[in-house]
Input
Amino acid sequence: FEHIEKLSHEQLNNIPVGKLVTRVTNDTNAISMMFTNVLVTLVKNFMVLIGVLTSMLFINYAMSLIVLCFVPFVVLFTYVFQKFSRRAHRGVTDARTDVNTFLSENLSGIKITQIFNQEEQKMEEFLEKSNKLKKARRGRMAVFSAFRPMVYMLNISCVLCILYLGGRSYALGESVLGQVITSGTVVTFYMYASKFFNPIQTLSEQFDTLQSAFASAEKIFAVMDMVPEVVDEPDAIALDTLRGEIEFKDVWFAYKPGEWVLKGVSFKVEARQTVAFVGSTGSGKTTILSLICRNYDIQKGQILIDGIDIKHIKIASLRRHFGQMLQDVFLFSGTIRSNILLQKEDVTDEEVMEACRYVNADHFINRLEKGLDEPVRERGNNFSAGQRQLLSFARTIIHKPSVMILDEATANIDTETEVLIQDSLEKMKNIGTMLVVAHRLSTIQHSDNIILLSHGEILEQGNHQELLHKKGRYYQLYTLQYNKQQLQA
Output
């Protein structure tokens, strides 16, 4: 889990959540079973084998050689079984991961399934993946069902050879390799043969668990071997304070090689300024905000914070000074207090409520029966979008950031809540540097600088009045939105 936390956004985007859940739970449990149940038995049975073999050699090495003649076959069968078993367990692990991934995604989006009446279709998909898992498990059982009888067959064959060769030598009074065979020797080796093969049979039964653990270990190490793409440089420094001055110098960035999202972007944000980014979907607005927090590393150019390249600043130190308020607010299961604090210590309830009052979240919190102790269900689905947004504002304020990032936080919110949010934003401008992404231009008119992006390049920048005076692309967008609002009114 600690290693997964260090992976970059790009790496996490490429791995389904259900797969990661399987790695952390099911696969680690399989390895735990190997150490707690299998490993001790393996050691015990191995010691029994050594002890029995030593006793047999001490009593009669000729008869011992008869028993040892079957050991190469055991090794051969085990080697062949290992090949097929490992493949079978990989199939089971992959199929189980597919089921968990499907469940994780579809249980989260089950409301969409119900809205579009797709329950039957989703059930068919689930049954298809479940049947794939059943088929994989049957294949694993088939492999295992062949191995144990083979070991048992070797056991019986060994006993028959002991009885035949030993009994024949005793009956005829012949010695074997200079060793005298007595009736007692035959009976002793008959008993020792069972003791020799019983541990092997027990091992064969637990070999299934062992192979399952090996297959799970392969999956776990596939994740553990992933090297985090965004890491601290050896000489990275920690920043105790941050003024909030940000500069992009000829920044080029692409999520996929050759498909540039930003193309030579350059701009400067002075400390405590409010700067807005506007443009059509896919123009690179949200990408710029992600790069400032170093969620991704750029391919070319330089990003400076207070004149320092962000690659020379420790990631944890850098992000500690940022407060991000996104359109899709994520709330954890718990209480309102725990979601605002996020485990931040040494903060009193009065300080929490002060932050809530500052961003107007106290309006609805005071109406709740338990106040700050009101339970928050999964993803905060017992609160409205506007309430969740206000809680994210309070969360940001309590952590006292130097730079605030606002990515379409006023979208899809009712008019009454938007008034509260706009009032909160006006107050928050006094805290530090604010970077805003907005489609509604009416919400950013008072920004110190407005940067208009198109296809990863800056077309225009300036304050609201300057851009209107230019009568360029910003003027066209503002006029279009203004006329639309007049028609709606």
